Amino acid sequence: MFAVLAHRVYARLFAAQVVALVGTGLMTVALGLLAYDLAGDRAGAVLGTALAIKMVAYVGLSPVAAALAERLPRKAVLIGADLIRAAVALALPFIDAVWQVYALIFVLQAASASFTPAFQAVIPDILPEERDYTRALSLSRLAYDLESLLSPALAGVLLLVISYQGLFAGTVLGFLGSALLVAGTALPARAGAEARRGFGDRLTRGVRIYLATPRLRGLLALNLTAAAAGAFVIVNTVVIVRAGYGLGEAEVAVALAAFGGGSMLAALALPRLLDTLPDRGVMLAAAAGLAALSLGLAAAMLGTGPLPWAVLLAGWAGMGLAYSAILTPSGRLLRRSSHAEDRPALFAAQFALSHACWLVTYPLAGWAGGLLGMGGTLLVLGGVGAGGVVAALRLWPAGDPQEVAHDHPDLPGDHPHLRDHGGRRHRHVFVIDDEHRSWPTHG
């Protein structure tokens, strides 16, 4: 996996991702402490609202940001987003009202909604070989998991010598470091065709390509399965550990680390696995396993009460492994389903639609917890996950060839596409574009 870091351009971009993630992790800890200073025992409500604002920004703004940014150089988009995020982090220690937290978080997440899809869309252009790109996806997943484990520990060490406001300085340095690394990296230029499209076309193009592609409709259903289990773990682990077991904050961290450890194990194993097995089989098996594990743990909670501590940790590790096995290969599907000029729009669509799943499952995990208890909530979310698996099986056909036989009754006989491919009926690698606006249903 780590051999891909020999590619100098990718190595610099990966370093930019890592330092930005460290800064984000420090901000997460500092933001919780800031919320407590401002709201006291209402800090949880403040953070919950901030999380909802984050999801709304991701879902609503990422396609808009991608459409606006398509006429700008990639490097300018990435650096500009990092500088905006750094400015917000610099302002956070000086605020004195909860509404200011909400406003700044919205601006920060709007910048992230610009940065993340644009960053993700660059990687397949600099790593055109699928084998290298697969390893880059696993390395990115590993970076996210390590950040979730190591950033709280780093924040704890820093808080021994500085106040929590100082953690925001670390966030600023992380985003500035990311901007400097991007500035020193030669990025491939954008394809020029998109600049001729109108704003409305650019705004909706990614979602239209996404929803017209069967494998991506299946991916959306699998995103729902992953979000159902992930939301339960993220929202309710603290409740299960503190109220259910009567344990402390250290044990909460251990339980979350078990989930992250399972995710890292999948990230390490997937490159070799995907060299020999198709994405559809791996992702559907992982999703079915995740839904089954969720339902099994729910049944055990409802039947016997709190699970033995070791069983809970093993269950969380298994859920993390399956969760990562669903999400890590998704970039391969997006790359396979688009031309290079459409990738930024398609990655933005994936960013928005996948976070729409979280926008549903986050509040469901929280509200159902108070009404149904932990076992009942996991049963509901496990059912949602199982529904995602069933939908994916129906939406993503088996086989899923890249080359598809089709014809073009709508194109004139002298159209360049027909001349290039030998006639009105032909076969080639099929993606949704201007000449192929819907997926062939037969042939």
Automatic annotation (TrEMBL):
InterPro entries (UniProt xref): MFS, MFS_dom, MFS_trans_sf
Entry's localization field: Cell membrane
SUPFAM superfamilies found in the cross-reference section: MFS general substrate transporter (SSF103473)
Keywords: Cell membrane, Membrane, Transmembrane, Transmembrane helix
Broad class of the protein's primary localization: membrane
GO molecular function: transmembrane transporter activity
Record Pfam families: MFS_1
Transmembrane segments: 12-34, 46-69, 218-240, 252-270, 282-301, 307-326, 346-365, 371-393
Gene3D superfamilies linked: MFS general substrate transporter like domains (1.20.1250.20)
GO CC, one annotated term: plasma membrane
Domain Major facilitator superfamily (MFS) profile positions: 9-400
PANTHER family associated with the record: INTEGRAL MEMBRANE EFFLUX PROTEIN-RELATED, MAJOR FACILITATOR SUPERFAMILY ASSOCIATED DOMAIN-CONTAINING PROTEIN
Protein name (Swiss-Prot/TrEMBL): MFS transporter
UniProt organism field: Roseicyclus persicicus
